[in-house]
Protein 1
Amino acid sequence: MTTTLEPRASVSPREEFVSLKHGAGGRAMRRLIAEALTQGMTDLPVDGVGLAAMDDGATLRVGDQWLVITTDSHVVHPVFFPGGDIGRLAVAGTVNDLAMMGATEPKGLTSAVVIEEGFRRADLERIQRSMLETCREAGAPIVTGDTKVMGRGELDGIIINTTGVGLTRAPVRDAGLRTGDRIIVTGTIGDHGVALMARRHHLDLDGDLSSDVAPLNGLIRAALAARPEAVSAMKDPTRGGVASALHEMAEKANLGIVIDETRVPVHPVVRSAAEMLGLDLFHIANEGKAIIGVHPDHAESVLAAILAHPLGKHAAIIGTCIADHPGRVILDTGFGRRLVAEPEGEPLPRIC
Amino acid sequence: MCLGVPGRVVEIKDGVAVVDFFGVRRETRLDVVDEPVVPGDYILNHVGFAIRKIPASEIDETLALYEQLLQEADGDMMAADVRGEIGRNDD
Amino acid sequence: MTETLTMAGAAELKFRDPAQARRLAAALEQVSAEIGRAPVSVMHVCGSHEQSIAKFGLRSVLPRSLNVIMGPGCPVCVTDLPEVDEAVVLAEDGVRIATYGDMLKVPGTVFSLSDAQARGGKIDVVYSAAQAVELARDTTEEVCFFASGFETTAVATAAVALSPVPPNFTILSAHKYIPPVMEIVAEMPGNKVEGFLAAGHAATITGSRIFERFVEKHRIPVVVAGFEPLDILAGLVKLVELVRDGTPEVVNMYPRCVSPEGNRNAQEQLWKVFRTVGGKWRGIAHVPNGNLRLRDEFARVDARRRYSIDLRRLWTHAPATLTQQCICGDIMAGIASPTACPLFGKTCVPDAPVGACMVSSEGTCKIWHQYGGHPDL
């Protein structure tokens, strides 16, 4: 049977609209950013590392130091979840982005909130207290902000945007991995995303599932101090999970990463819940963990420094960077090897 | 097309079982299970329904089945182990 | 904390024992070599088998002479365009759609349910048919459960249809029935499949005996296998042995979940609620008795009878003629590879899939596209 092949329109009806996949941290989002949000801007001159690097933040030269700046908008639902809330997430998220670039002593944060009419005042105050507590933990003050209220139904509850600034003499980029570097993860993976997914889908899960949301700047400071210059690259595996973070790091450094699955720390209940929902733990968001690339000669000492920190108790060396398979992430499962796929969109529970 | 997860029945109320899946508890309906189920039994859960009561004896029998398969496939188990090791070192 | 084996239940631990897995992989290598020709192709018809194989990296330990093909076993991927369109039209008409997560991104003629959501439709992801009913109880809106999946999943839908449901609840059945498609594959000209690995959980419902007639007719073996790494490897060893010996038999390698007669209680409820009808499976062909539809006695919960669903509204947008070029059927039968398809990588890509093989996260075309060919690890 012969048919004339009609080329798809360059903007098919399906792509006229932004959909949820564009926010999920995977490839679709990166394409939207490149095509619709940053066109031309990467050509504007920057004295430092800017938009083109698509790193956790930007570094701008100020005298003999680097100003690190990062921004994030937080839209998590539910607003209150086991282990934290949107306020803690906002502060920790920004503090962590700064830390990933080597700025572990934030100079200050901003906090801009957009609140839906009808939002409970008591909830707002609870969020504020949570932010205060997290600021204290991180040693990072909120120094300025903004407040807006929109009509009922015009947004879902509350949105918080935080921007953070810090200084460093030694910025760390997520593109810095070298062949032979070991990969350290600072603790158990999947905690945040699975806890939230379980709550969203009303899974009556036994007690133990809790977000890991926490500010990591103290832990990172310790890791960097252990062996200055041993750390080649860092990234926090938030949206898109460990898979997304490792893929970006592998692509930017143009090398391959092999991960030993038997060494990856996972809380048993998280693993169980993920299996039941059909979720891939490598695609699930973490909000209190970091991926750190370290020179092989110093991996053990950096690991020791992390293990000594309360937030790094379950840290482990989980992988190695290789010259082969550039841009790819390979998982040794203990039964065989496979490639770790990049997450395509929002992780969804599957039946199949 | 078969995401089925085994778990242990903790309690039963009105045809709905609370099942412990290795630390995760969830309700599972018993409408379509093949045998009557009591707390302590293992069931296979698929999309919120128990589709099978897993008899404890079958687990050991299955493991024995796999062992038998290995015996039949290769009389010389030592060679098979070595071959397996060589296979892994090749990558 | 760093163990990869599932915790608790010492018994379950044993189905993920890497040492035993290595022995089984070695046995598989040996048995395959004994066949004396290559490649030998066997097929599984279960998305979860492929998920397991992929998740545990089993392909990297399979013998090179053995070709384990993923057949049309992903019910989501073989759900045809008009079936998705029906749900999309209902969503556009303001009906709240409850669906399993897998179906959200499957493209219809123009839109997927995810697109419908972006356009203002109300779509809820559920993990159980029972949850869809709860949703209907909690609202005055019309709620339609988009029921996808094979017979294993249809059983849950049947149970729900047989219990009290609120008046605003309906079911749109896109359920599929696996045994007929095995016939189709076995009869495809040029088909090289020498044995089938049957889906263990579907067989939990239907029983292993259901494959006997198929085996008699086509003279190829069928092994029913579970989903843990040991289950899959042991199932393959048995299957390849049967191929080697030329023995067309049904062997149940999943006795802890599968019996010869299956789950009678579930079967009764399934066939009380559903009947089989012929239908087109995306990327394959018309499959006689391949679809499950609600019987007349359940008309009150049948979305197709409650609503008048006019698909022509969607066709004012450019209808796809691309599907006629899709060769997923050949790919699933092991006759062709993705690169032979004129659409592959050009007009059929993960973001805009045309056929089943590109829709499924474990589909052949999806994997080839993602990794630039079959990953050789």
Note: Residues 40 and 66 of chain C are 5 Å apart (CA to CA).
Protein 2
Amino acid sequence: MNYRNNPQAVQALIRPTEVHKDIFVDDEIFELEMEHLFANTWVYVGHGSQIPNPGDFYTTTVGDQPVIMVRDADNTVKVLHNRCPHKGVEVAPEGCGNTGKFFRCPYHAWTFRLNGSLLALPLKRGYDPEVFNECEASHGMAAVENVRDYHDFIFCRLNPEGQGFEEFFGESLTTIDNMIARSPQGKLEIAGKPLRYMHDCNWKMLVDNQTDTCHPMVAHESSAGTAVHVWEESGKVGPTPMAVEQFAPFISSYDFFEGMGIRVWENGHGHTGVNNSIHAAYSPIPGYMEAMHAAYGEERTKEILGDVRHNTTYWPNIMVKGPIQTLRIFKPLAANKTLVESWAFKLVGAPDKLLERTLMYNRLINSPTSIVGHDDLEVYERAQVGLASRGREWVNVARLYDPTESQRKNEATNGTTEWQMRNQYQAWARYMTASMTEAV
Amino acid sequence: MNTFNDQQLHDFIYAEARLLDEQKFEQWLALFTDDAHYWMPLTQGQTDPLLEGSLMYEDMLLLKVRVERLAGVRTYSQQPPSRSHHLLARPEIETSHPGHQPEQGKYVVRTAFHYVETRMEQQWLYAGWATHELVTVDGALRIHQKRVDIVNSDAALHGIQLFM
């Protein structure tokens, strides 16, 4: 099948209750995702606390595009394509740093302002101004036009045309709001480097998994189930360890996950944990409640901490956990290769024990050494191999399907529904084809 | 108190790695004190295991969970199982480390290693340094902390299922 310039063929991969395997395994589909899906959507770039001062930068990718997130002199955040207009060299090195008042390409010392515009180049007399001004290079490094700094969460849309930020995210931003409000000062800081975990599978398998509430009691019986078993065998001396508190809810019953609830927003966003969640029963941390009461009063504190959303998927490729302060990015590298970065946040003004809890959760669940991670990686990679089979063509997402659901939005429903997955795949088809032209 | 000479410390380090490669995990766990930790820092030169991210920072409860899990009938990521191979350089006795107090039966030993983990057709090579903080319990050496610094700790890593 040829998918390029063939929006009908792309749309036909998504049915109401099943999706075609090509969206996971086909190289051309992956290329088109990079060109269209990751250009038409608002993609998370990074957090403002990674670049607190003018000249601070952080390099990353948006889809397959190398970019620089930089704090400009006026304190606004710019996102630049990390590519020298001269010979194509990545101007900023991998990682983060401070570039001063301008970027300088390491190859020929062309320099660029923090907004990407060309500042100077050596031996300029060698260029006829009239000729050079006609060149693309005279415009400097390409800046991404549409960047939004939402309370330090930096998103960009690579395509100059398309849906606005508010329209794209709608009510889903309430999860980020809640995570920020959990700081007594209403402020988050990135806590060090992310855990980086390479997966030999398609990025959408990970996104799909974030609101898959029918797998934990099966896939994680080996990890969370064993943790509970070892704790029970030990005679349970003393208070339940933090690690056991974090593992145990993974093997809750189907009833628990059904009751937890799932809320489905527009445009592929949604979250598990409407009424309850696996993060709801952690032991209180001394000093935290007091700090929250002092900052917000009792009633507002109850509202903030009572919202125990589990996983919020921001389509296309991040997941945020408010109650445990983590953010995971599913970076697509190839149809069968995904880099998962798991970031942790510090709640500014909260006791250190909360950060300790966040970091423990991150390494127990998201590290390349995580036993929960091993369970998941195994099934993703088996799926990537299994999908090569010609025995079946489709992947099923029919659980609790209701034909009227596509007309409804912002609705909370049974916690084991696959509606949120269907929501993601409907959004996939829409943002894949929004800027696709048909072959003539 | 008995003190241990360099040869005895070296033998202990080699024997520990051999237990891992032979997958005698219960015997391996018995080498640790009850309050021991196995630590894999995320960053080079990291000093804080709790308020900075780590790849692993596990107490005995969590290490026991790992060992029990490896043999579980529903541990699909170990069907078929992984294997490991440790190649150790000569252990160095860290005489200038503040935790190295032979007169108190405490020793710090640092060992450069190459570690290979395999599963089915795949093989991964890691290089790093293990730092053992050893104590003497009932006349025998025990591990109070095993710190594993791999040279690419902040790189994108595939799953590491066994112990370095």
Note: The interface with chain A takes residues 40, 42-43, 50-57, 59, 61-62, 64-66, 68-69, 72, 74-77, 154-161 of chain B (CB under 8 Å).
